[in-house]
Hints:
By secondary structure, the chain is an alpha+beta fold. The chain has helices at residues 5-9, 41-52, 101-110, 136-142, 152-158, 166-181, 189-204, 227-231, 240-256, 285-294, 315-318, 391-421, 484-494, 499-557; strands at residues 19-24, 30-35, 56-57, 63-64, 78-83, 118-123, 259-260, 273-274, 276-278, 281-283, 302-307, 323-329, 332-337, 342-348, 352-358, 362-368, 381-387, 446-448. The protein is globular, with a radius of gyration of 25 Å.
Amino acid sequence: SPSNQQGLTSLAGKFQGRTPVRVHFLDNSSKVFLVDNTSTVKDLILLCLQKIGVLLTSDDNSVSSNSALANPVILPYFSLFECLNGSSIENDAALNLKAIVVEVIQSWAENNAHPDAKLLFLIRLYMPCLWGYQYRDVVAFKINKPKTMLTLEKYFDEAGEHLLDPILMHLQFIQAVYNIISGRYPTSPEQAIELGAIHFLYKFGEYKPASHVPGFLGNRIVEFIPIKHLKNSSTSTRSLEDWERALLQKVLSYATGAASSSRNSTSSSVGSCTYFERNGYPITPQRKYMELVYGMPTYGCSFFRCSGNNSNKVKAVRQLPDVSYIAIHHHGIHIFDKAKQTILWSLHIEDIYRWGFKPNKLFYFEFNSSVVEGGSGEDGTVMLEFSTSEGVVISDLLTDYAVSFLKEREREDDRLSKMKSGKLDLKVGRKVTLGGSSTFSDDSEVHEAPTNGGRPAGLNKPPPPPHHSAPPPPPPAAPTTRPGSKLVQTIMNAKKAASMSKSLEVASAIKIQSLFRGFSLRNEWAREDAAILIQSVFRGYLDRVRLSKLIEQMISSGEL
């Protein structure tokens, strides 16, 4: 088949007007799909998820790996990214889910894109439900502990030998390797060698001392050690051979300490040795790699370089450097110093009062001063402004995380109800089948999009809130009246209240989402009014949750 998308597009006449589109993955594999003139990015993402075997869960929590579900809950967490220069990915390259795929590809020629421009399938929103493990709230319920008391190590211990979805972990793994090697996730030299050695065992399987000697990798050392370390002036005394020698020495240490595997299974071991264990059972190098990455403070962060001189009486704000990085992730915002690899301070998404942007100029957010070091409620709210040309991208990303945060909270509430009634299978999971250096593999088969208006069956339902639409949707805000860790327990306790309270919560969440969709269509006329209104609705929703909690406590104490 043609080597690039331009060549594939020229073959459209041979497929009854349908255009072959190649989608690339970060493990260097790719798949070709046939799309028509109405197929959207959302349609193509759904086809990718189905083809690679991700377990798709619909809004009613029915699991299917084969049928074309109308609206899998995890679909908005993925995106197709444009790689216009054929080699790198930018933060703003994620395509709108409603964009027509054929029109996107046609625009490349108009914008003088590189001949090797391509579409990449990536995780965009790093929600915890994509980790591949059993859900954290389910694990906490099984061991009778609040989710907020479940440490990361305890979670890994109790998650079980079998993953909920190993394909999701594989997607996390190949993207984590890319982020580590490219330097998006900064690492120390020691971290780089440790992760590189685990990646080596994943890539080559069992350690072979006769062949795995210095010189075995050569220039391929760049696949295992971040290029920034190889070129860093502070470690310039290390040659490529020195890095390879250190890497192989770490691999040897793993091999020396490896226990002979009593479970000679392709799902749990590499070769005849078990290099890594967790809570008494063997785990793959891929899983070990991700355990380390999941524990990194930079995991799941999208970094944006900003500058700003925010003079304020709050100590944490005064100490911000003139140039720093805003890191957006599923919990909220980090202000990050990448040079020192440290988080200067963080804000949970529920502690941010509102946020927005001025096109090509700045990104701003407002929060209560009491939630950061050196602040107090007496200082009122604090507005921070950061100069950046990517304000719209930052605002859209934070908005999408806020909407996803609400959806995941609803799913947790639903799972809790089912677990209490015994209707949820707590043993659901699949054995790991991705051993060694497995990838999705290049596919010689061309996968055809269903001819239902360019959409898989069932995709005629109203779409979810758009991503990266133009103009961007008005951002919802999160209240400052309660730390996020307390809100989780509050909502769980509120589920014990009367059915009227539960209905109020559900109705409130539905109303928020419907208002969000409506405002995204009307924001050309009333952007500021819409933003203010949706933020007040969001705060009202959580106020009603708190009221339900208060009523429950008064009933329990006999005051009512």
